[in-house]
Amino acid sequence: MDAELVIVGAGPAGLAAAEIASVHGLNVIVLDEQTKPGGQIFRQPPEGFRVHSWMPDSIYREGKSVLASASTRKNIRWLLGSTVLGTFAAGSNGENSNRIKVVVDTGVLIEEIQTEHLIFATGCHDMAAAFPGWNLPGVMATGGIQAFVKSQQIVPGERFLFVGTHPLQLIVADQVCQAGGHVVGVVFAQQFKRMLSIIRNPFTMLRFSGKFLFLAKTLYRLRNAGVPVSFQESLVRANGDLQVSSIDIASISLDGIVQKNESRRVEADRLGVCYNFLVSSELARQSGAECEWSSQAGGWIVRHNQWMQSSVPGISVAGEVTGVAGADAALEEGRLAALGVLLKKGVLGSTAAARLAEPVRRRLSNINAFAGLLRELSYPGNLLNQLLSDETNICKCEGITAGDIKKALAENSCISSGSAVKLISRTGMGLCQGRYCNYPLTKAIAEYREASENEVGPFTAQFPVKPVLIKKITHKPDEPA
Amino acid sequence: MRNYDVAIIGGGVIGCASAYFLAKAGVSVAIIERGQLNAGASGRNAGSLHFQLEHRLIHNETHLKAQLPHLIPLTLAAIEQWNTLEDELSCDIGLSMSGGVMVAETSEQIRLLERKAKLENRYGLAVELLSAEETLARAPYLGETVQAALYCREEGHCNPRLLTPAFARKAEALGADFFTDTAVMGLDKVGAGWNVSSRIRPGEKASERLEIRAEKVLNASGAWAHEIAAMANIHLPIFPVALMMSVTEPVPVFLKHMVQHVGRKLSLKQVEDGNLLIGGGWSARLQQHAGKWISNAPAKLSLDALKSNLGVASEIVPAVNQLHLLRTWTGITGVTADQLPIVGQVDQTPGFYVAAGGSGFTFGPLYARLLSEEILTGLPSEALQPYSPARFGHVNMYMGN
């Protein structure tokens, strides 16, 4: 199988790229793990579900229209429910070949797709903050709770508490309320004053009025529903035997220290945690794309040029994977990446490409200004380090604790890179391949060794980026599956 | 300028183990490693302890007959050392010596096993040829195509994640100095010793120089030992080769042996944590730039080789097919012109030692111990004699100092 352009990820970035590329006549294959396009943000109800007035808010309007438009294009082939495992150079000698082999687990078999142009629009995922009790059933990523509510109107629990630093928790708390759930509180680590100080700048307010209006409306609805929203507080631990039953919350002093000894207890059976998002850059890294560290924008983000091309010829990136900036930025980056591909293929001349890119870049720069503010506002700083105790698992898959990591660093004075710590400690060697622990581990090593995160470096991302049944790989084409 | 008795180049198992044996004898040692410790083949191989002659060594039988009288005494010494290594290092290195089977699927392969068994037993390595029934009784996880197996009681595996760091910690505690992220740029023979010039964090703007004066230099830089040798004006016939290894998800222990194949490329074992490690010498591809190997770049994985490797593994141990592949990685090891390791002092450059090439994980700790003795006493080791660089003396006739 081959295509002129392969796009991995059918979220806003992937959809926008697919729409532009297909309008200009390219044959495009779009791959996604979900069974429907839309990504996390425009998560569609599954087959057989009818959701009354799906995602009605106006901020979702543009994304929904791109989704609708891309869905009708004839020259886009959708390979949904498919997991991309990695890429290889298609030629026998990688350097002399400009074709890329994309290896895909389609569910039953492994398929290989060849292309000269690939866009990774692989998005981001919730940061799984590690704290005592984080592996109790009932502790969820707030984004995960949203996924249930958004696509299926399912309220996955009785009493919800949301803690974190990201304004998304207001939106999800509101969505849970509207779907009939009971929210017992929303807890922000930031001072309300600091949040206001960013928003209070009249210029900022004016420029991003739509966003703030949306947040203000949400806050208003929550207050009306009697949901307490508190600031300058942090979770300390989640308690429970078989599942979470209560959460200890403590205030944060003015110098940022969690007052763990003076905690209050909140009864809840669902804890939504939302501190930040981590980019899903493992496919880009497995393909050899250079990354750089950003604590605020999601960890190991992929480097790119003005046409969203990565350091690997033929591979572009778009959306959250370049740094978490939200769906609007992802749409624009997807468009830019597609224009870059069209330019490189010669479908567009440089003047035409620049002309089409100009308004996209203008909008993107505006959106990025807001995304920067939001990142600054929601960055938890060293708060998460304070939540770790030596017994807390950093790597859930392999059961490696923060204390194990400190011990490994103390005993092995020469070891300072992320991959070397992974090797000696097994952190990141489990089923998730470091998707969740690479971020806290990078920060832990950097802090312990007093080095920069870029010196520590990411885990080497290996094929397959997600586990695959060996039978699918050893299967011979002439045998039945 | 810092002064040491011995400068060791390379922070893999041979370098770190040599540092330990030398430091233990009271010698001052510096280890210079261009990346992180254990980041090369020592930490990337599949951890097999091969005591039977491996697939790659028995490919050429004439060759085999010539090598056996030398290899088996060394193997016996290695077995003895592995038996005491956990005590010596006083930590867990994931060592398991619960036996290994080398399987055969055809009558021709069985005949090869028979001849191999005869030779190995004659020279003192106890191996037992098992019939199809005996094989299945002892290793019920093997597939139906297995017709026979050669069983070696001492074979097994050790965890490559843990072995080299354990040696490094011991060496450091005994006073060895480690310089990591430090690349050797030049070796100069001055007087009776060597000036070793290095760069700390060579890729960065703030890179600093490190100047070391050492009486002796040990080149333990593995696949790239020829590059370090060139700095001493010496040719070493060591060639980098890239291989791949894979690991599966963990499952309850069902496979207690190290499994090899006499006619196909396979090594398979289950580690303490329950994961299966699959290897056996399947190729990856070294990266090139302008027609030259890039010595610092990771090798590229080949999908076809991965399919073949997993294919062989799942034919010999059918349960493999039902497992999830977690990850596949590549590593670069060195092979020599005659497949045997090169261990000893280079005649043309007194004070310049090398230990590289050939079953470096199974035999690395032994090479390190024997060569350290040679460095300490100045007397060539009897057991290492067949592996001396002198056998390639002809390529260095016009080289050296």
Task: Report on the architecture of this protein.
The complex is a heterodimer of chains A (481) and B (401). Chain A is of the alpha/beta class. Chain A contains 16 helices and 23 strands. A five-stranded parallel β-sheet of chain A has the order 3-2-1-7-20, covered by helices on one side. A five-stranded parallel β-sheet of chain A has the order 9-16-10-11-12. A three-stranded antiparallel β-sheet of chain A has the order 4-5-6, with no helix packed on it. The longest helix of chain A has 29 residues, at 350-378. Chain A is globular, with a radius of gyration of 23 Å. The mean pLDDT of chain A is 90. Chain B folds into two domains: 2-43 and 162-237 and 338-396, FAD/NAD(P)-binding domain, CATH 3.50.50; 48-158 and 239-336, D-Amino Acid Oxidase, Chain A, domain 2. In chain B, the strands form four sheets. In chain B, strands 1, 2, 8, 9, 10, 11, 19 and 20 form an eight-stranded mixed β-sheet that branches. In chain B, strands 5-6-4-13-14-15-12-18 form an eight-stranded mixed β-sheet. In chain B, strand 9 (182-190) and strand 10 (193-200) form a beta hairpin. In chain B, helix 4 packs across helix 10 (360-377). The longest helix of chain B has 29 residues, at 61-89. The A-B interface holds A 88-89, 93-95, 101, 103, 112, 398, 411-417, 419-420, 423-424, 426, 429-431, 433, 460, 462-464, 467-471, 473-474 and B 11, 33, 36-39, 43, 161-162, 165, 168-169, 172, 178, 180-181, 247-249, 273, 285, 287-289, 298, 300-303, 306-307, 310-311, 313-314, 320-329. Strand 23 (468-469) of chain A pairs antiparallel with strand 18 (324-336) of chain B, so a sheet runs across the interface.
